[in-house]
Specification:
376 residues, two-stranded antiparallel sheet, 12 helices
Length: 376
Amino acid sequence: MEAQSSSGLLLSRKRRREGSNGETEEGERLGKIPRCTVGLKHPAPFADELEPADGPYVRVSMEEAKRGTPPDRPVRVYADGIFDVFHSGHARALMQAKCLFPNTHLIVGVCSDDLTHKYKGFTVMNEDERYDAIRHCRYVDEVVRNAPWTLSPEFLIRHRIDFVAHDDIPYSSAGSDDVYKHIKEAGMFAPTQRTEGISTSDIITRIVRDYDVYVRRNLQRGYTAKELNVSFINEKKYHLQERVDKVKRKVRDVEEKSKEFVQKVEEKSIDLIQKWEEKSREFIGNFLQMFGPEGALKHMLKEGKGRMLQAISPRQSPNSSPTREERSPSPTFRLPFFTKTSPPPSPPPHHSGARGYLISEDDDEDDDDDDDNDEN
């Protein structure tokens, strides 16, 4: 029941419900699957290793099976096949068989190599490998080795089988149009759906199509040409192809790395050019501000030149300066040793920056007059 509920959640990722207008609408599954461990810890047992069941064999009807049987009387469903190169399509078919009824005991029959090679063809896996693969499928409760190609009433009774699960497509083999025809007529057939897109034949077709690739891969992994059924010439050819492919891969890697390097260099060069343009504009602007026609350096030179000229050249007297006759008399300065007052000396007109007083020409003349008077 636990396995059935978990598989039912897996199958019902999307559910359909009837709308008000009669059309089917898709609804998302509510919630997620709770984390739990529903798998078995041991592989399924083989049928010939189990103890025989007691009591008479009484089949259950389809209605009873769908309604649910007691826990001690599960519905025994049988599914058979070759199961070569066990894949998800096989597992899905067994999952559907397990989920046919609320209480199901799934029995899986696997045909032997002799029977399979006789009616179907050569297999990739031998019978022991196929038996073991089925034993480890989580949906299987019991495995029948060397299962018959056509189900007889004796086989059904011996294994106490209630229903046989298989896809509804007629399976023609062993001189019959449908080997499950008598099962369908007896009302013991329970149909399942095939998984499209995957089968043992498809997988083998892929291997055959890419034969050279797989041979070269196995040679690289250490298998010998004899084990792979490869001739000496083909072995050398595959080794040469592998070396050529290695060289191609190296060249491709170098090309990719070189492209990445060139791309990085271009990005960096673009960044450098942009930065250089920004710095060059700033440098040119600063240069013009300093050394341009109206730059700060020109003003500094003009100002320094003017100061220097003022320092080394004398000041010119103004043109409107009064003449000697028009000048007012200079104030006199009387020394304490002389009773006669004498005007203080006035600075010469062309030496305006000299300090102190100098004796003027008028003072000289006055002195001469004084001397003449004394002599008289």
